[in-house]
Structures are given as structure tokens and as C-alpha cells.
Amino acid sequence: MKPLVRLLAAALALAAAACGDATGPAHAALVGAWATAPHAAFGPDGRALGLRQHTLRIDARGGFAWEDATVAPTGAVLTYAKTLGRVEAVNGTLRFHPSGVMRYEDGPGAAAALADTHLVPEHPYGWRVARGRLLVREPGGGTVAFVRVPKR
């Protein structure tokens, strides 16, 4: 358990550094915390692994943290990926400029579940905010639908 705690502590330190390096303001509609609804995650053999969820945090200076986690029915973390950096809204697209990535995978099929968690640097992701949801079009054509996480 201690290695996982150290890994998460390192990720938090990296997040703080990445946010401090961000340049330029973020589009006001993007600032805040966003999350997808938990959804089923499957291994390459089609076997259900557990639930998967994405979270995206964007600060006012354009710093971002995109997290992706898969949790087994037992509550064990199977996969976790966190990408940090800065994001800019350009001509109706989002461009993510990653400065750090952390990945953790445990168990059969975990590596395959994380295969699509990376952001393509400099790729123009289409986006829009509609009815309280942030819709981000991925390079493969899919759309990730985030809802705003209320401030605590």
C-alpha cells in the first residue's frame, strides 16, 4: 500500500508544478472540475474489468489534470493514469500540451484498458459546453461527455 501512496503523492506534486507552469488564461467556460459517469471497462478478451471514470480539472491559467481510473468490483484500483500540463482553446478546438504522465496498471487486461487514456499532444480536440456538459471529441471520433463537478 505504501508504494501506491508514494505514487499518488508524486502525482500531486507533479500536478502542482504543472499548474504553475501553465501559460495564458483558459476559456472561462472550461475552468473547473469535470467528470464522466462511471462506465463499464472491458479487457481485450471482452471480460468485464470493473468501472472506469475520467476526471478533468482546468484552472484559470490553463493548467489541466486529466485522470482516468478503472476500479474492480472489489474496490481495488486496476488502472490509473494522470496527464498534466496546459490546455488552450484555439479556433473552436482544445489543444492539450502535456508536461507529465503517470500510469499505474495492475492485473490481467489492465494495460489494454489504459491503451486509450493518452492525450495526443497538439491534436485539435473539438469541444463544446451544452446543458452543463463538456463534450470533447477524441481523435478516434468518439466523444467524452463530462459533467461539471460542483464546488465543495
Can you give a write-up of this model?
The chain is an alpha+beta fold and 152 residues long. The chain is built from two helices and nine strands. An eight-stranded antiparallel β-barrel has the order 1-3-4-5-6-7-8-9. The longest helix has 20 residues, at 2-21. The chain is globular. 30% of the residues are buried.
Compact overview of the structure:
The protein has an eight-stranded antiparallel β-barrel with strand order 1-3-4-5-6-7-8-9.
Please give a handful of descriptors for the protein shown.
single chain, alpha+beta, 8-stranded antiparallel barrel, 16% helix, 48% strand, globular, disordered N terminus
What profile does the largest beta sheet have?
A: 8 strands, antiparallel, barrel
> What separation lies between the terminal Cα atoms?
28 Å
| Tally of alpha and pi helices | 2
Please trace the helix and strand order, writing H or E for each element. Answer: HEEEEEEHEEE
- List segments where confidence is low: pLDDT < 50 over at least 5 consecutive residues: 1-23
Return the average pLDDT rounded to an integer. 79
Strands of the biggest beta sheet: in what spatial order? 1-3-4-5-6-7-8-9
Q: Percent helix among the residues?
A: 10-25%
How much of the polypeptide forms β-strand, as a percent range?
A: over 45%
Present the secondary structure layout.
Layout: H1 2-21, E1 32-35, E2 39-42, E3 48-58, E4 63-71, E5 77-90, E6 93-105, H2 110-113, E7 124-130, E8 133-137, E9 143-148
Antiparallel strand pairs: 1-3, 1-9, 2-3, 3-4, 4-5, 5-6, 6-7, 7-8, 8-9
